[in-house]
Amino acid sequence: MYRYDEFDHDFVKARVAEFSDQVQRRLAGEITEDQFRPLRLMNGVYLQLHAYMLRIAVPYGTLNSRQLRMLGHIARKYDKGYGHFTTRQNIQFNWPALSDIPAILADLASVEMHAIQTSGNCIRNVTADHFAGAAADEVADPRPYAEILRQWSSVHPEFSYLPRKFKIAVTGAERDRAAIQTHDIGLHLKKNAAGELGFAVYVGGGQGRTPMVAKKIRDFLPEAELLSYCTAILRVYNLYGRRDNKFKARIKILVHETGVEEITRQIEAEWQELKDAELKLPEADIQAINAYFAPPALPDRPEGDALVKQARLDSRSFSEWLDQNVVTHRHPDYAAVTISLKGIGEVPGDASDSQMEAVADIAEKYAFDELRVSHEQNLILPHVARADLKAVYDALVEIGLATANSNLISDIISCPGLDYCSLATARSIPVAQEISRRFASLERQREIGELKLKISGCINACGHHHVGHIGILGVEKKGTELYQVTLGGSADENTSVGEIIGPGFSSEEITDAIEQIVETYLGLRLNPDERFIDAYRRVGPAPFKEALYAGETKAA
Amino acid sequence: MKVLTANRLSDGIAVWYADGGWAETIGHADLAQDKAAEDRLEAIGAAAAANNEVVDVNLIDVTVANGLVEAVRLREKIRAAGPTIRTDIGKQASPAPARAA
Fold first, then answer.
1. Strand-pair category, A197-203 with A480-487
2. What is the rounded distance in angstroms from the CA atom of residue A117 to the CA atom of residue A153?
3. Domain-by-domain residue ranges, chain A?
4. Is B9 within 8 Å of A429 when comparing Cβ atoms?
């Protein structure tokens, strides 16, 4: 994986020193909160309901065991023994004291991590397919390009005060696991007819109060022009994006209001000025970054087939976990493993200090020291020999992280909601927990099949509810929590925004409503292979509305 | 009825103005029963913020039950107690329980 060079080390060290000084001056009363707030936000420090919150960047979701171990250490020493992995492949700590943050950042810097640009109106952590480098279906690892974008965008003077935050995602496979069409810029790494690498470029996706699916503005951008083209997009946005209204400031609104054709023309015109010039990536630089992401040497382990076959016979639970949480690797003797942070009734995305340390040990012993954080709030071991899968499974069972529910209804994305977040209007975690408990039976979950359920506790949609097959949005109505349900959303290569199905449900009603929706789907699907999303696209909302609201006169 | 709340600058912990200082629990917070008392609390909050003791100062609606102040809105109930999903942490975990929901 990427290792800091001299420049990176100095840069992060200098930032830790600078922010530590700012924290000391704030604590000493030398600067006011109004002066300090933008500084702390630039360094990932928010103020939430109960305490400060520190959001730490996990670039393109890639971690090594040393880094995960350090996160466990921070959870134990400075927080309350746990951390929360987010939908942006980052981690958040919910309870750090401001006075401890300089020490936390120094600890992070010692393992090449930081919290820079995890907030503010700048280019945020660049996200990527969590199976990058391992997936059997990718044309190339997208992370070197994410790293190039990270280096380019870090404290970029022109793009540090954008109209609003800006998110970029990259995938290297046709099957989009990085939700690129819900980002400000989505990049799909592909090969053209001549076998050259380049990108399909999508612009103007986003969720929040105005969900938009990104528009493809270029089918093939040569890889060398990645930065010149992104610069052109950012320049057009920086110039014309609205600064008068926070709710209309994202590039999705600019794309929508300007029109795809016109904005494409503006971007292409800007790009004509930039291409083939200093922003063109030299082949040697691409190769140098690529070298950092060279896959580990994966020795042949052909004994895996027989071992897995026998272990399946010995253990039904291992067999179920294998079917659900283990995916094909580009090397036939290996597999990629999803470690579910969605145990039945648990808080989605939370991991304890000791779990983090234990997972780090597993990664070190069995997975070439590599880990990923997925935007679906799980951890991934991208390279595990099939011969070692049983040992990995057994180790995960010991720490309570072997739930075999990847992509099933209890693999819920949930934002922190009103239990932690000062922006939230309703709780989201308890809803996730109750649904998870209702569908606790793995047999039932597997019968239902792939179902992406996503919950947000406010309109900002950190829980991605707009693109859930079933989405739940918590709002406050007349002083109580009310949950709106959307159906038909999706965040893959066929991205769609879900439709509100009807009046919302109280916290007592919402789990029953979800069960009703699921039962309706089971009753109308053509066969067990027809997934929820496919069935919904075939039949539309009517049967679900009928099931939920027939005979009722419900207040909106 | 209102009380004054904020987060402590040094560690961000939620606090309520009580008896001339900032308490970590809401139960015995100073009550404002009328506009004049609200103005007085607001002035105290502004001074404490200016003095870098607290941040994010707000007056919030409360009721009194069994002699203890309770927040009205769910958001403030959760601030006063801790996450409803982790009753082992936050203020609700200390000896005098104050569960939000």
1. unpaired
2. 9
3. 6-109, 127-292, 306-398, 413-549
4. no
Give the containing element (helix H, strand E) for B65. strand B54-65
> What pLDDT, in 10s, does the model give residues A190-217?
999 999 999 999 999 999 999 999 999 9
Q: Render pLDDT for A53-100 as a digit per residue (tens, 0 to 9).
A: 999 999 999 999 999 999 999 999 999 999 999 999 999 999 999 999
Q: Name the helix (H) or strand (E) containing A233.
A: helix A226-240
Write out pLDDT tens, residues A233-253. 999 999 999 999 999 999 999
Q: Determine, for residues B84 and A419 on separate chains, whether the beta-carbon distance falls below 8 Å.
A: yes
Q: Could you tell me if A458 and A425 are in contact, meaning their C-beta atoms sit under 8 angstroms apart? A: yes
User: Half-sphere exposure of residue A487, counting CA atoms within 13 Å on the CB side?
Assistant: 26
**Predicted complex: ipTM over 0.90:** yes
Contact A373, A90 (CB under 8 A): yes
In the numeric block, the tokens 């991991």 are attached to A351
Pick the CATH number of A127-292 from 3.40.50.300, 3.10.450.50, 3.30.413.10, 3.30.870.10: 3.30.413.10
Q: Is the CB of residue A281 less than 8 Å from the CB of residue A227? A: yes
> How many Å apart are CA A489 and CA A504, to the nearest integer?
17
Question: What spatial distance separates the first Cα and last Cα of chain A, rounded to whole Å?
Answer: 51
Sheet with A370-373: strands ordered across: A62-64, A370-373, A379-385, A334-339, A326-328
pLDDT of B97 reads: 47
Which among A27, A49, A347 is the nearest to B79, CB-wise? A49
The owner of tokens 């099939």 is A386
Q: How far from A439 is each of A115, A343, A459, A531, A555, CA to CA, in Å?
A: 37, 12, 26, 17, 28
CATH topology of domain A413-549: Sulfite Reductase Hemoprotein; domain 1 (3.30.413)
Helix (H) or strand (E) holding A285: helix A283-292
A98 in reach of chain B (CB within 8 A) = yes
Q: Are A212 and A256 in contact (CB under 8 A)?
A: yes
Annotate A337-367 with DSSP letters as a single string: EEE-S--TTSPTTEEEHHHHHHHHHHHHHHS
C-beta separation of B71 from B80 below 8 A: yes
| A29 reaches B (C-beta below 8 A) | yes
Amino acid at site A434: E
The domain made up of A306-398 is a member of CATH 2.60.40.10: no
Across the interface, whether the CB atoms of A50 and B74 are under 8 A apart is answered no
> B96: pLDDT confidence band, cut at 50, 70 and 90?
low
* A80/B89 touch (CB, cutoff 8 Å), yes or no: yes
- Residues in chain A within 8 Å Cβ distance of B12: 47-48, 50-52, 96-98
Contacts of B72 in chain A (CB under 8 A): 479
Model confidence, pTM:
0.96
Whether A84 and chain B come into contact, CB under 8 Å, resolves to no
B83 → closest Cβ in A32, A99, A419 = A419
**Inter-chain residue contact B75 with A418, CB threshold 8 Å:** yes
Contact B9 A26 (CB under 8 A): yes
- Residue A231 confidence (pLDDT) above 70: yes
pLDDT of residue A551: 72
